[in-house]
Give the backbone structure.
Amino acid sequence: DQQVKQNSPSLSVQEGRISILNCDYTNSMFDYFLWYKKYPAEGPTFLISISSIKDKNEDGRFTVFLNKSAKHLSLHIVPSQPGDSAVYFCAASDSGNTGKLIFGQGTTLQVKP
Amino acid sequence: DTGVSQDPRHKITKRGQNVTFRCDPISEHNRLYWYRQTLGQGPEFLTYFQNEAQLEKSRLLSDRFSAERPKGSFSTLEIQRTEQGDSAMYLCASSPIQGPERVFGSGTQLSVL
C-alpha cells in the first residue's frame, strides 16, 4: 500500500530552467509534508516542508505547493543548477502518529549545464 | 555534535550470519528512528524510540530484526540469520519530540552474500 507516490522516476532539465517534481498521497490524515534530497552514498537531507494549513511555502529557489483537494504536492526549483542533481523524496506524516514518516519512491533529477 | 553518526558505513556478510549496526543520534534529540532503503525505493520505516522506550516496532520486517536503545542515547539494530533479501541501506535518523523533521545519518550499506 503505497501511501505516498512519486510517479516520475526521473527528470532532466537544463540549467537555469524550472524543475517541477510531483508527489501524490492517498491518506487524508497526513497533515505535514516534507521534501528530502539525497546524494549517492549519503543519507537524505531535509530541504523544505509544508503544513496542511498552507498551500505554499517558499525558501529561496525552492517552493512547495500543496493541493489538499487533489492530494497532490509539487516542488519547484527555480532556477535549476547542476548541483541540484540528486534524488528527491517526498515524505508525509500524520501528527497523530508521529513515529512514522512515509516516503515516496523518489525522483532522480538531472540538471544539465 | 555534527549530526547523526552510523557505524559501520559498509558491511558485507555471509548468509546466516548475524550483524549489528550502531547509530549515534544528535545528542539533544529524544527520538531515534530506523529506516531501510532498497534500490529504487524511498526509505521504509522500521521502528522508533523516544528516549529509551521503543514506541513502534510493528514495522520491523521479521522476528530476526531487533533494535535497542538501552540508555536513551545510541541505538543498535541487529539482524539475525541474515538473508540475501536483507541487503539494503539501513538509515538512522533522529529528531526532537516536536515536529516531523528527521535528521538522517549516512546509513549502513549491508550486502549479504
About this structure: Chain A touches chain B through 26 residues (CB under 8 Å). The two ends of chain A are 38 Å apart (CA to CA). The first strand of chain A starts at residue 4 and ends at 5. The CA atoms of residues 13 and 111 of chain A lie 5 Å apart.
